[in-house]
Amino acid sequence: MSDLSLGGLATGMDTQSIINQLVQLEQRPIYNYQQEISELEKTKDAWRDINSRLDKLENKTTDLKLSATYNSKNANSSNEDVVVATASNSSIEANYDITVRSTAKAQRIFGSKLADNYTASVDDTITINGTNIAISSSDTLNDISNKINDSEAGVKASIVDNRLVLEASKTGVDNALKDTTDTGGPTISDNNGILEDLGVLNASGEIVNEPQQASDAEIEINGISGIISSNNEFSDSVEGLTFNIDPEAVVDSNATISVVKDTDKATKAVQAFVDQYNSVMSFIDTKNSYDSGTKESGILQGDGTAMRLQMRLREVVNSKIKDTGDYQTLNSIGIEIDRDGVMSLDSTKLTEALENTPEEVTNLFQAESDVNGYDGMAVKMDSSLDQILQSNTGLIPRRMDFFDARIDTLNEDIENIQRRVDMTRERYVEQFSAMEEAISEMQSQQSWMMSQLSSMGGSSVTGMM
């Protein structure tokens, strides 16, 4: 009977509409729960965004804890066509006069001009720097060049004007190819004379054409001579400095490298922190706002957790960091917060502080109580953010877990109510179906009785006539 629905055939009533209206009353809690879930999802999205912004703020805070942020050095060259340099944090602020005595070059040799249709006359093996390269009697000059390059034997092969050109892959005397005249034996040879055929070696195994000999780079630093490198880079001459000579530098040309403190790196790191701090606070303000004109409020309006979070962050950046010295607060080095809570940086003031007392300014950010007797702002902020963001135990993860648990509970409640609603609907369908059947049966009986009465009345009239 539960599947039977006469749909008002007997009564003329829209029983399906009546049932829907009756059931809708029992479904009202579901609509309320769905609305609450929707609000919870929006709140979760807001907290998820806050979490992402705070995570970025933590990264910016970490940069402020690093000594490398404040100890960075720049190496400036008076003539970059002669020499440039890079300085590590360990380098000393000083000037270095560089004079170039020679630049490092790679050896280059070439062979004889050959016919356009040249092919090797015999099978042979070329040995370069201990690497064997098999040559076939049918190989063209291009084939030979490709085989040398594919072998990675420490030379680069090319063809110019039908001549085989070989150039050492690395600069410096130690990387040059040696022939039979060199001490220690040749590093380029063959078995059956292919290199003589190509005009690279003569019959005695000597290099024929060497337009560019290998050379080491040599420089003087502050009058100290004899400083040599097989390439144009000098990384071991001065602690924390690497000099790079221009390969085209003129012999006896000179330049001065000046190593100075790089305050720009620290300034950029602080500005990045300021920008991200404002991003966090501005977003929370937006979600916690109320528009009296439109009567609309942000999704976190009145959220105590959001307000406490802002208070904690403001307290870290506004509080006094230490009790002595010229710089005791962030404000003293150019980091200010206006009445609207917006942070700004006076980069000129920060730069001056870094140049005057770099260690004191650095400690304002990265000092630790067990070493310095107080915690710097970055250390405090990192600790606070860790308590906010840490998985499972952090403020925001716990908040997200609460939302998830509440949503799960609401969904379970919805399922339970929906089951009851379905059972109620089935009961109404059965009841209305039973009513329709009863009325239909009554109507059928009434129709039969009227038919009988009508039949009886007709017979009496006929008999009287």
From TrEMBL:
Q: Which residues form a coiled coil?
A: 400-445
Compartments annotated for it: namely: Secreted; Bacterial flagellum
* Domain Flagellar hook-associated protein 2 C-terminal: start-end pairs: 214-444
Keywords linked to the UniProt accession: Bacterial flagellum, Cell projection, Cilium, Coiled coil, Flagellum, Secreted
> Primary place of residence?
secreted
Q: Name one GO biological process term.
A: bacterial-type flagellum-dependent cell motility
Q: Which domain of life is it from?
A: Bacteria
What is this protein for, i.e. what is its function? Required for morphogenesis and for the elongation of the flagellar filament by facilitating polymerization of the flagellin monomers at the tip of growing filament. Forms a capping structure, which prevents flagellin subunits (transported through the central channel of the flagellum) from leaking out without polymerization at the distal end.
Mind telling me which PANTHER family this protein's record contains?
A: FLAGELLAR CAP/ASSEMBLY PROTEIN FLID, FLAGELLAR HOOK-ASSOCIATED PROTEIN 2
| Quaternary data | Homopentamer.
What is the protein name stated in its UniProt record? Answer: Flagellar hook-associated protein 2
Q: Give the species this sequence originates from.
A: Halanaerobium saccharolyticum
